[in-house]
Design a protein that fits this description.
about 450 residues; Porin
């Protein structure tokens, strides 16, 4: 899953949105759209020295006379920049084979290996229809299609809700199915197969040279074989999600919600662009292999949220606990405090904290001479980490039920050592660098 020139996408979407909002339609179009509500958003996200994202979203909804609601959304985003490939940094420059197996890219000495060819565009279209029936029942059905140049996802979902006790309690249950097709550039790589052994392999005689020359050593050889890619060009993944929820009005100021969810994923869950370094006892890379993950995953989570109406605002706090059969567990605490200034504007601080343990197959590197595990990944996203978000949103209501808002947030992710001893020269390398990012989002409702 890779992305393209984000700036042009954001500009094009912004231009289209301005054109949509700035021109007076014909009377017939006004009549046709008078019952519609539109939400537009542009998100700009940028990591320090890594990935940048531009995303635009248009969401439209219409409520009919029988209180049924139709909703449609289209999202367009583009990513570009550099993505960590999973290999460890070394005191020498490194060369890696590109996704196709024919190209290559270089990483300077003492630098986290980043694949700067990372880029992609994604288009997602989704829709849903809510239909009330009886005095207290509602049913919603929906679907979505998302397309990238190496990824296609098609899904369907349904939700049933029932109001109880004079509508003070609502119970809900839902099911969603997602079918994904993955088509990596260069084909599906063979798990734990060598990317290009000759490009990053050093013997013990090189150890003295590396230490004495402070990492000047560089091997210019590169093997242009198939790079460990298998014959398959595509693979598939299926996801089934089930949710059961209860929403309760506690009193005139407080609303509480609890959701239980179960997810079953089967199929291809390996990231075809991620690799691991195989190092010797001196910490020198001897080989680079593609990662491999299990082909099934069962996840469970519990989510609790409470909203409390203040005299001039709303406090919103939530907690999520999630675990799975990969032995990956996580805790998420999210809080927002909306402070109203009069009837036309508001300010909303946002604080989020996230903590995650490592999956059982997470390895920051592999040791030469040891038997290969059944599965292994050095992707920090399945490793131990903490993360936090600090943000601030300002919004203002306009005439005719229009509203605009801007949100600015800082995000930092801190990968951690999950208990592995670094051999030799790896003790001097930064194996778990923090990822820092800024986000700016513009919203307009009309």
């Amino acid at each position: 899953m890779q992305l393209t020139k984000s700036g042009s996408i954001a500009a094009a979407l912004a231009g289209a949105t301005c054109a949509l909002l700035g021109h007076s339609p014909a009377v017939q179009a006004q009549d046709a759209l008078k019952d519609w509500k539109f939400d537009t958003a542009i998100l700009l996200y940028s990591e320090v020295d890594r990935v940048s994202l531009a995303e635009g979203v248009i969401n439209a909804s219409k409520t009919f006379n029988d209180d049924s609601v139709f909703n449609a959304k289209i999202a367009l985003d583009g990513l570009t920049g550099a993505s960590a490939n999973g290999a460890v940094s070394q005191p020498n420059a490194q060369t890696f084979s590109g996704p196709s197996g024919n190209g290559s890219y270089n990483t300077p000495a003492n630098t986290v290996p980043l694949d700067e060819t990372f880029k992609d565009t994604r288009v997602q279209v989704s829709g849903s229809y809510l239909q009330p029936f009886g005095d207290s029942w509602r049913a919603t059905v929906g679907g979505n299609v998302s397309s990238e140049y190496d990824y296609l996802s098609i899904g369907a979902n349904g939700l049933i809700e029932k109001d109880l006790y004079q509508r003070n309690t609502t119970i809900s249950t839902g099911l969603s199915l997602q079918f994904d097709t993955i088509k990596p550039v260069g084909g599906v790589p063979t798990p734990l197969a060598s990317m290009s052994a000759s490009a990053n392999s050093y013997d013990d005689d090189d150890y003295t040279t590396l230490v004495s020359n402070q990492g000047v050593y560089e091997d210019d050889e590169h093997d242009d074989d198939d790079g460990g890619h298998g014959e398959a060009s595509t693979d598939n993944k299926t996801t089934v999600d089930f949710i059961l929820g209860v929403t309760q009005i506690v009193n005139r100021r407080m609303l509480m919600q609890v959701n239980l969810s179960l997810s079953q994923v089967s199929g291809y869950m390996t990231d075809p662009y991620k690799v691991l370094s195989v190092v010797n006892t001196q910490g020198l890379t001897q080989d680079v292999v593609y990662e491999g993950r299990p082909d099934s995953r069962t996840k469970q989570s519990i989510y609790w949220q409470t909203k409390y109406a203040l005299d001039n605002g709303v406090a919103d706090v939530s907690y999520r606990y999630a675990t799975d059969d990969w032995n990956l567990t996580s805790h998420t605490i999210d809080s927002r405090l909306r402070m109203n200034f009069g009837e036309s504007s508001y300010l909303q601080p946002h604080v989020r904290y996230y903590q995650q343990s490592a999956a059982e197959f997470y390895r920051p590197f592999l040791l030469e001479g040891e038997a290969l595990p059944a599965y292994a990944s050095a992707d920090y996203r399945v490793g131990e980490m903490t993360a936090f978000t600090l943000g601030l949103k300002y919004g203002q209501k306009l005439e005719n039920d229009k509203e605009w808002a801007v949100r600015v947030e800082y995000y930092q992710q801190n990968p951690k050592n999950a208990g592995y001893d670094e051999p030799g020269l790896l003790k001097e390398q930064e194996l778990y660098p923090s990822i820092k990012a800024m986000m700016v989002q513009f919203n307009y409702h009309f």
